[in-house]
Design brief:
mainly alpha; single chain; 0% strand; 10 helices
């Protein structure tokens, strides 16, 4: 949805030759992704086990299978922001008339990911292998994302890394630690109690994350159109 929302503005700003507004729009999109996806990543890590205990069924409902599924959810969840950012930046390059750069960097990052997966498969076992494979996938997108960020900076002279990322990561880590600690202290057993635990701990996570986000003043909801050109003194891409 963020890609779709921002694309018309990117096209308009590029056609107008307004590089500053173009970069501000990309930064707003990357900040929006950070605000949405970093907490989700932390939630995937903190509550992977109870989530998979509820969702797994049949042969996959055993404790060993749940551990494998939880490892996959946690390791792939970590890569949500790099994944989303990579495809956002790929569309940015498409607007610039360059489909070659994201294709080449995506291929290169994929090769790194495959190499890491081969090493993981040869040196680990059981849930550790699944965890390592998921991390390799996430790392490959992180590499591709960072490569496109650098390439875009060389192209337009602006950095588009999400300014909200440090604050979001701090708040999400605290919220995730609170949710995980609550789960460990509770130690529910059985699918019914897992459902109850999730019904309590997910809102708790959300409340801590939302409170921390408000406390740090992180907001992307009051973005002005055209890179913040709508009012004097208003910060680009920032909320009040």
């Amino acid at each position: 949805p963020i890609h779709t929302t921002i694309l018309p503005e990117l096209v308009e700003e590029h056609d107008a030759g307004d590089t500053t507004a173009f970069a501000a729009s990309v930064r707003w999109a990357s900040d929006s992704m950070a605000v949405l996806l970093v907490p989700l990543s932390a939630l995937c890590v903190a509550l992977a086990v109870p989530a998979m205990s509820v969702l797994a069924f049949g042969q996959a409902s055993g404790s060993q299978s749940v551990d494998l599924l939880a490892a996959a959810l946690a390791s792939l969840g970590i890569g949500l922001l790099p994944y989303g950012m990579f495809f956002l930046l790929a569309r940015v390059f498409y607007v610039l008339g360059d489909s070659r750069s994201p294709a080449l960097w995506g291929a290169g990052a994929s090769l790194v990911g495959v190499a890491l997966m081969l090493v993981a498969g040869a040196t680990t076992s059981s849930a550790t292998t699944v965890l390592a494979l998921g991390l390799a996938h996430s790392i490959s997108f992180l590499i591709g994302c960072l490569a496109l960020v650098v390439a875009l900076h060389r192209r337009i002279g602006h950095w588009v890394l999400p300014a909200a990322l440090p604050g979001c990561a701090l708040v999400a880590t605290v919220a995730g630690a609170v949710a995980w600690a609550g789960y460990e202290a509770w130690s529910p057993q059985g699918r019914g109690l897992y459902v109850v635990a999730l019904a309590v701990l997910v809102p708790l996570f959300g409340a801590v994350d939302l409170g921390g986000t408000k406390l740090l003043g992180i907001s992307v909801t009051q973005r002005l159109p055209h890179g913040g050109r709508g009012g004097a003194g208003a910060p680009e891409g920032a909320g009040a």
